[in-house]
Amino acid sequence: MTRVRISQAKIRTFLQMQVLRFAEKVFTFVLMTRYLWIGAVALSLLALRETNSSQPPVARTGAPFDNGYCGSCHGGGSPAPTITLLANGNPVDGTLGYVPGGSPMNMEVRVNHGSASIGGFELTVATLPTGSPANDATPANGLTAGNGSTILTASGGRKYLGHQGAQSFSNGTVSWLFTWTPPSSDMGTLRWYVAANAANGNGTTSGDATAAVTFDMPVRVSSDLAAQTDEGRLLYWYDPHTQMLMLRGAQMAEIYSLEGRLVLTLRGEGPHALGHLSGVYLLRLYREGAAPLTVRVWLP
């Protein structure tokens, strides 16, 4: 038998070569994995950008029941855009009301910004967080999309309206038209949640200006509503000398003009100063566990 003698130096060189080849394979694997991961992230971001430019992710109006708003992803731009909500051509400003069971209203979302190139929006409408029931989604069922907008539905069934394809600004303004049918019954004051993105069009989420605002819309009390009583219980008393209205058994009251515009809101039982109001008004009384009560009042 012939024995082959291998020097320790050759063995050492052989082992070193094997270690180097193994390390080279590991390095190549790690490098490929890293680039694949970066590519996957880039494709995901690109897909997200393309999706958001075609329509916004659902439930991003900044409402207390939502998952943030446009500014949760977009940012870096300034100033914030100005958002206006119109109903039948009039600003929704806290005094313009809706009529339960009334005709559809022609609505408009208008976004203003001095330097943005494209814009998008999302909105919904619900009862107040302090309403009963609170944050009820029923009013949003009356939303109907118009040109450039689409209806979005959250997992719980809540309806939203958002842009369908980003719109270009013209003279610093971009707007969307839609219709809204008020709920069939009195749901108290409703709150509109509107978020908007005034983007610079650079294809990323950076450098975009965002905003989220709310608009309240009270019930418009019909002027032909007959005066009501509450089984003889005294719910209010007006003192013409002090011009104070005393509430009893009512946690809140609203005073409307005969045209249905909200004039004054009174909160809590006890005396409330009415200032220099005079004439015939509609007094809407809110009682715990009971439907709102509306009466005509004359303030001398």
Can you put this structure into words, describing what you see?
The chain has one helix at 8-54, and strands at residues 75-76, 82-87, 90-91, 105-112, 118-127, 143-144, 149-153, 159-163, 167-168, 173-180, 190-199, 206-217, 236-239, 244-247, 252-256, 262-267, 270-273, 279-286, 293-299. The chain is an alpha+beta fold and 300 residues long. It has one helix and 19 strands. The strands form four sheets. Strands 1, 5, 7, 8, 9, 11 and 12 form a seven-stranded mixed beta sheet that branches. It has three domains: 7-53; 55-217, Immunoglobulins (Immunoglobulin-like, Sandwich), CATH 2.60.40.10; 236-299, Immunoglobulin-like.
How many domains, in number, for the residues? Answer: 3
From the helix content, strand content and strand pairing, which structural class follows?
A: alpha+beta
Fraction of residues in β-strands: 35-45%
The name of the CATH superfamily of the largest domain reads Immunoglobulins
Summary of the model, kept short:
By secondary structure, the chain is α+β, with helices and mostly antiparallel strands.
